[in-house]
Input
Amino acid sequence: MRAPKYFPPCEFADEDGLLAVGGKLSTVWLLDAYTHGIFPWPMFGMLTWWAPDPRAVLEFDGFHIARRLLRTLRSGKFRVTIDQDFEQVMRACGTAQDRHDGTWITPEMLAAYAELHRQGVAHSVEVWQESILVGGVYGVAFGAAFSAESMFYHVTDASKVGLAHLVVHLNNRDFELLDIQQLTPHSRRMGATEIPRRQFLARLERALRSDASFGSELEIPANHWQMMR
Output
């Protein structure tokens, strides 16, 4: 993999994964970051860039859907779409679950990712109850890699429903890598794992050579959840 244009190599990150401070929240900088395994995560009023080791990923064949969630997916309780309201999903990710004071989704982040969305790089999954947005997830797609940034819910299980649809959709669109950046107890229960950064970067490089695309419609058969065991 070629060295990034605006950042040091990932190997220069400290033990917490912090690689750089400052720079620009522009589409050029963001694309350079993501295609080299780097992501922004503003902290304490500063723009900081990260490349942790190990790196958390969600393997498509390791994704675990609990029985309770599967019942919800089968129930038809929610309607799920993609790229119908990207900015509202991102705003909700910054304010739901009492994140107002601790959110990293600043107005500058929102503007930058909204521009990535207009360029067809950033995408969202929306979860609705009737006409009300109650959950969702957003992230960035490049080649056959998708970096999931954040998700939210206003109704129990809505974010999990969004994530489940995202995983199946990406798998059916021939994506190879689903990056979730950092492992949490919640993501571990759903099958997420950690891999060494060197391995992550090698897989990212392969995924970038693919011509997979996110698409404009959910790539999930109507009876998919009913067929699952």
Remarks:
- The chain has a mean pLDDT of 94.
- Residues 158-172 form the longest helix (15 residues).
- Residues 90 and 110 are 7 Å apart (CA to CA).
- The chain has two domains: 10-51, 56-227.
